[in-house]
Amino acid sequence: MFQFIIRRTVGALVTLILIGAATFFLFVAAPSDYASLACGKDCSPARLEDIRQALGLNLPIHQQFWDFMSGIVMGRDFPTGHCSAPCLGQSFYSGDMVWSTIMDRFPTTLTLTAGGAVVFVIVGVGAGMIAAYKRGTMVDKVATGVSMVLSSFQIYVLGPIVLLIFVYSTGWMDNPAYHPITENPWKWFTGLLLPVLVMATIFTAQYTRMARSSMIEQLAEEHVRTARAKGMSNKYVFFRYAWRGSMIPIVTVLGIDISAMLGGAVVTELTFSLQGIGRLAVDGAVHKDLPLTMGVMLFGAFFILIVNILTDIAYAYIDPRVRLS
Amino acid sequence: MKPISSRRARAIVVALAAGSLALTACSKNEGGDSGADSKKDQKEASVQSKAVTYADAAGSTGPAEAVPGAKTGGTINVYQEAGLSHLDPGQIYVSDAGQVANLLFRRLTQFKEDGKGGVSVVGDLATDSGKSSDGGKTWTFTLKDGVKDQNGNAITSADIRHTVERQYAKFIFDGPTYLQTWLSGADYRKALPNGGFDGKHLPDSVLATPDAKTVVFHFDTARPDLPQTLAMAGYAVVPEKTDTKEKYDKAPVATGPYKIASNKVGKELVLTKNTNWDPKTDSVRHQYADSFDLQFGITESTQTKRLIADQGADKNAIQLTGGVESTQIQDVIGNAAVSKRTVKGYQPYVMQLTFNLDRVKDIKVRQAITYAVNSKSLIAGEGGAYGGDVAPNYFAPTLPGYEATYDPYGRLKTPQGNIAKAKEILKDVPAAEKKVVFAYSNSEAGQKRKVAIEDALTKVGFNVVSKEVDSASYYEQIGKLNNPYDLYITGWGQDWPSAGTVITPIYDGTQVADGSSNYSHVKDPKVDALIKKALSEDPTAAAATWKEAQHYLLEKVIPAAPLWYTKQFQLSGSNIGGARYGSVSSLIDINRLFVKS
């Protein structure tokens, strides 16, 4: 296990460096940069050069890349002050340190992700398991039918409808907003309740169907048939034998979904006017803000890699046949 | 002379693009009875275009006239889509930061509105709007007593000197450059490379501060507009002792009625009362609300929905620079209760179809296109009557000197374009000159405009080749001297109510260069002479010269076909009092607002 973690960590670092390089060089290959955007319409060559100098864009590209990547581990100095490690640079647009901006926005994304995951794993997987257990009955048909309908919804459709009903028309709930849990736990809970539920609804439908089909597949396996033949009860067979095997594909997709959400649930954040990592990524692209874009990309990639490692570890626990190597 | 202030138009691009991004099929939203609304708007427009007066000490003395029914207390929520790129006054040029600057910062002079269209320049930090001598080449300002920054430090002439000189430093690159170039020429940074931070200063022959209360500007030519220039947010005072250079952008020191309590860039900016602001020294601003809570990242569509719904915290909310989203205009104007909570008026921007005179050399081609363009179709794409009005000439209704009926191409009579007249003009024009390359921005608004332009010109017999340009770098691309385009839509708005900030930047032949705002590359000796003459005259005489320049340009040169005037239409919550359209800002007048209960 230890060797596995070391090996995967080293691999993750190499991957992050490659992602950083790819993002950086694609960005600088674009025909215009932040300096020309900031320079405005009365841009003169001298003015443009002043801006590029102020932003460090006049340095050779490889120097800029090295400064950025080395700053992650060693920190960097800017005219506005020192940026401690992990330093993801200084935003061209806002002038803020990218790391502090990301940390400011991350709790919103984390709350959305964690809250959504809890709901759709418990409800979605639970409903799918029950549907598989009660296959062919009315319970199964209702669960399947509802999940089919809900999985055809999109956040940008369901979100505005929910806002219209619960916020704009009735005033039952306030406009969604993030409040730190340390300030007011109740406001923290209710502030993001609507977006969490909307997001969870979409995912729940998918996980219901996935859990149901995965469980049905497991119930047809030979070892489950053998267990039944040996006289074990349905409930015992279901929870002791079939359940674990059915979790492998669910864990795989869960890992992908969580890492994607941690990188920024852009559509949810835009729909509910939330300021999370997703909005930050969009802002970075719109403003041609290289440090912000690099920072968000690396931050998102970091979580994808971490969650992948955790997913692989989870496989080993779920399925004893899987050996970490 | 090189006034460089074209980033106002970037604000147009940002503002219009942000609004236009939310446009969908707009056929239902014609803005109600367009005809009746337009006539009323034009009547109001003539009010907005009254000449600016310069006030004396009496007009500059505080406190500001009380807003009827005003109460103190409460928090005003302010919704905005994009965050503010700068809070350092020296870097402020665009309207969103400018609105916030009205609450935070004071400057030598300020605009004051009487609500009936009358606009005057009053002394803000200064006792009056300034005294000129030496034929307008010298301007003297005396500072008021008792004006302090948020830390309780008195503002002195040394702070004014510092405010001006720091603009010469390289880290200030986004703000206005009028004053610097008037004082030190086009290469002003060479006159003071370190912005005064190294102890070196501008000579007294340029900027003098003989005592702690007096500031004297010396120019090589008359500058009658100086009081208006100094009213720009970009020239708000930066106290010398508290200047942290690049860091100032995050934590500027306030001199206005509010100061920054917290600032999360792009997310939330909270302003609270500045207890060191003395209303007796301020004839413009108020301090009714306890705080302003600016929340960013809220799209114009969501802002409109929230304010129409008017629930909870939205009752205390306003829009900063956004407006009613065009697809929801009918929801607003069709509901009397909601409609009462709107403010509207003309913005200073005129949208034009600019010709690249280096390529479109035949004046008959330019004439024909000017007759042919369909303003009605273009305006429909902007939200109908609430989004814009047909522009018959180059001067916006907010500009002193605006002539509502000056319409040499009959655009008011035939806003859909006069195809017959255009065809007649083009009769003898060779076919080779009827092929035109039209550049358009690849935004949603740009796509709609492309369709309208292609449709109109094709009807006349032009072969239109449309080229898409990345919206983020649109102005950079069309601003290149050797760009490969014949036509492009541009917009321009005055920096202050003077035609000098319209004609000069976009038609001055001495400013034809890469990145210049003279997108048509006009180099006409008569235009240059008229510009030079007008810039040295007092406002009354200058008005006649600007009028002559406009007429000459539009009739004899035709560097652009005027298309439409832009309008602003904003909504506020039901608990907001004092809401009134500000002619100078073209936005809700943020200085007058209060929370009703």
Compact summary:
With 325 residues, chain A is mainly α.
Q: Mind explaining what this structure looks like?
A:
The complex is a heterodimer of chains A (325) and B (597). Chain A is mainly α and 325 residues long. Chain A has helices at 2-28, 34-39, 45-55, 61-74, 98-133, 138-151, 155-169, 185-191, 193-219, 222-229, 234-262, 266-271, 277-286, 290-318; strands spanning 76-78, 81-83. The N and C termini of chain A lie close together (8 Å). Chain B has 597 residues and is of the alpha+beta class. Helix content of chain B is 28%, strand content 19%. Chain B is built from 18 helices and 22 strands. Chain B has helices at 7-20, 34-48, 57-60, 95-104, 157-165, 178-184, 226-229, 300-309, 329-333, 336-339, 363-372, 375-380, 419-426, 444-460, 474-478, 500-507, 525-535, 539-557, and strands at residues 53-54, 75-79, 109-113, 119-123, 131-133, 138-142, 207-211, 214-218, 258-264, 268-273, 291-295, 317-319, 342-355, 388-390, 435-441, 463-469, 487-493, 560-571, 576-577, 581-582, 587-588, 594-595. A 6-stranded mixed β-sheet of chain B has the order 14-18-13-17-15-16, with helices on both faces. Chain B has a 5-stranded mixed β-sheet with strand order 9-10-11-2-12, with no helix packed on it. Chain B has a 4-stranded antiparallel β-sheet with strand order 5-6-8-7, covered by helices on one side. Chains A and B meet through helix 2, helix 3, helix 5, helix 7 and helix 13 of A and helix 1 and helix 8 of B.
Give the helix/strand layout.
The complex is a heterodimer of chains A (325) and B (597).
Chain A lengths: L1 H27 L5 H6 L5 H11 L5 H14 L1 E3 L2 E3 L14 H36 L4 H14 L3 H15 L15 H7 L1 H27 L2 H8 L4 H29 L3 H6 L5 H10 L3 H29 L7
Antiparallel strand pairs in A: 1-2
Chain B lengths: L6 H14 L13 H15 L4 E2 L2 H4 L14 E5 L15 H10 L4 E5 L5 E5 L7 E3 L4 E5 L14 H9 L12 H7 L22 E5 L2 E5 L7 H4 L28 E7 L3 E6 L17 E5 L4 H10 L7 E3 L9 H5 L2 H4 L2 E14 L7 H10 L2 H6 L7 E3 L28 H8 L8 E7 L2 H17 L2 E7 L4 H5 L8 E7 L6 H8 L17 H11 L3 H19 L2 E12 L4 E2 L3 E2 L4 E2 L5 E2 L2
Parallel strand pairs in B: 1-4, 2-11, 2-12, 15-16, 15-17
Antiparallel strand pairs in B: 3-4, 5-6, 6-8, 7-8, 9-10, 10-11, 13-17, 13-18, 14-18, 19-22, 20-21
Helix pairs in contact in B: 11-13, 16-17, 17-18
